[in-house]
Amino acid sequence: MPSGAPCQVAADLVDALASGLRSPGRVGPGASPRCRAMTPITCIEDLHRIYRRRVPRMFVDYCDSGSWTESTYRANEADFGRIKLRQRVAVNLENRSVRSTMLGQDVAMPVAIAPTGLTGMQHADGEMLAARAAAAFGVPFTLSTMSVCSIEDVAAFTGKPFWFQLYVMKDRDYIERLIDRAKAARCSALVLTLDLQILGQRHKDIKNGLSVPPKPTLPNMVNLATKLQWCLKMLGTKRRSFGNVVGHAKGVADMSSLSSWTAQQFDPALNWNDVEWIKKRWGGKLILKGILDVEDARLARDSGADALVVSNHGGRQLDGASSSIEALPAIADAVGRDIEVWIDGGIRSGQDVLKAVALGAKGTMIGRAFLYGLGAMGEAGVTKVLQIIHRELDLTMAFCGLRDIADVDRRILVPGTYPTGEALTAAARSPNAAVSAAQGAAASSAAPAALSAAHPAARPQAVQAR
Length: 466
Ligand code: GLV
Description:
By secondary structure, the chain is an alpha/beta fold. It has 2 domains: about 325 residues, TIM Barrel, CATH 3.20.20; about 35 residues. The strands form 2 sheets. It has an 8-stranded parallel β-sheet. Helix 16 links the parallel strand 8 and strand 9. The site of glyoxylic acid has 4 residues, from loops.
């Protein structure tokens, strides 16, 4: 039993008792989910509250946490809040449009569903339901390598193209087969995540003993007893493990402990040469996710990728890194003319999407926001999230005096309230010598010796031709 478990059991018992004692007519923060669902849901936070009641604690904690002190996780949201919009009036606001394109694909708004691990544990068949909601709304859905539903499950269920996110593992045969499976399923873009070769420590996951499916420990059983709807739906599906991995990756006996499995399987040697072979093997649109530095943004552009995502993995990896919105302007200024620059991290509203677009993002990705809708209300909840964000984006753009998302730029923001990117641009002028040397060497496969000499973490096999 993890340390702190007795306290958790006690808290869950109190929670269960409190739910039973609640008056059915009461609404507001203390009301039961069913009762609250009868009051109009008007914002993402409403769905978040229902989500926290309906989904087992270990998966809520997995979603709603960052690494170590969680400073970057908090900054992602807080830094959006500091940016002020300029209110304009007496402008004709008829015939507005927030339609745009991402990678040339027509989208109802510049928002895609981000890849999130374990989504099928937030709600039974979660990836399939979210993909269908996204397709119906007209925004892209990205399936994580670490999903519960498999690539094939989602393809069969939606019948529509979606994007596939790739984590690179040591077993390259498996990775090649995974890429081939994504091609066979007609995935229309590959999202290669570059910021999770190793896993940042999230204290709550360790304390909860995070596993897929949850282990029948006393704290889990008590907590699950308060989540009957979740349990019933989960009993009604056969998808309760990692569908892209189990039965596909060799020698994977037990991946129920996510952190130890990741530590064993993910490839810490991943480098820019790997980006090159993955790009070749995939042969389609490639998106690089996890770029937070101007130097890396230039390398991403030079790799020939089609888009990059400014991201710190939702504050789950390098605690103390800049927030995504703080990093965006410098990266957009440096490479935004050559490659589509998108952002994720901290986006909880249409206002956030508008601010990101104003600071140079051609697209945005939402992770936690869609999970709140999914955990709260399944497919209808994801649709609700998209409707809320769409409406907020449209109306906020109008209040700023604009009718077309294509016209949004920094002029809608109050100077002095938004990040300008100066510090990060200056940092790129005095690069981190060791890392730059290693990256430069890695980018040129002719110089394997220089790579290993310059960067202690780089291993010789990292530069083998693949
Ligand atoms: C995986 O994407 C994670 O952040 O746990």
